[in-house]
């Protein structure tokens, strides 16, 4: 397994955890206890997406395919938690990451 593939796998796992924790917060479970891990996971996913793209580029793969996911992630703070635009953007981030990861996997 190459470095960018490992970075993408780890980031994908973190992204799943982030989405699950976000859903838990959306449903009103976890309260204040789940908020700081949600933010920590968010920053880890941002870093992992950028790192995965850079490592893919160095490996000769189209690392730029992860730029839409990174752009969506970095604009996430413009949305309000608990609102429809927040979870819609989260799902768009996940879809963009999945597509970008698939394109850079080889």
Main attributes of the structure:
single chain; 106 residues; mainly alpha; 4 helices; elongated; membrane; transmembrane; transmembrane helix
Q: How do you describe this structure in short?
A:
Keywords: Membrane, Transmembrane, Transmembrane helix. The protein is mostly helical and 106 residues long. It has helices at residues 3-26, 31-58, 67-74, 84-104.
Write structural notes for this entry.
This protein is an all-alpha fold and 106 residues long. The chain has one domain (3-104). Helices cover 76% and strands 0% of the residues. The protein has four helices and no strands. It has helices at residues 3-26, 31-58, 67-74, 84-104. The mean pLDDT is 94.
Tell me about the largest β-sheet.
Answer: none
Overall SS class: mainly alpha
Order of helices and strands: HHHH
How would you describe the shape?
elongated
In which range does the helix fraction lie? over 70%
First-last Cα distance = 10 Å
> Helix tally?
4
**Over the alpha carbons, how many angstroms does the gyration radius reach?**
14 Å
């Amino acid at each position: 397994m190459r470095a960018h593939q490992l970075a993408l796998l780890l980031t994908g796992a973190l992204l799943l955890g982030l989405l699950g924790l976000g859903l838990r917060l959306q449903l009103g479970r976890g309260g204040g206890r789940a908020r700081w891990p949600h933010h920590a996971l968010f920053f880890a996913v941002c870093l992992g997406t950028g790192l995965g793209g850079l490592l893919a580029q160095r490996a000769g793969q189209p690392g730029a395919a992860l730029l839409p996911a990174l752009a969506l992630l970095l604009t996430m703070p413009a949305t309000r938690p608990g609102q429809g635009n927040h979870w819609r953007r989260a799902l768009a981030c996940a879809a963009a990451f999945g597509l970008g990861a698939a394109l850079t996997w080889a």
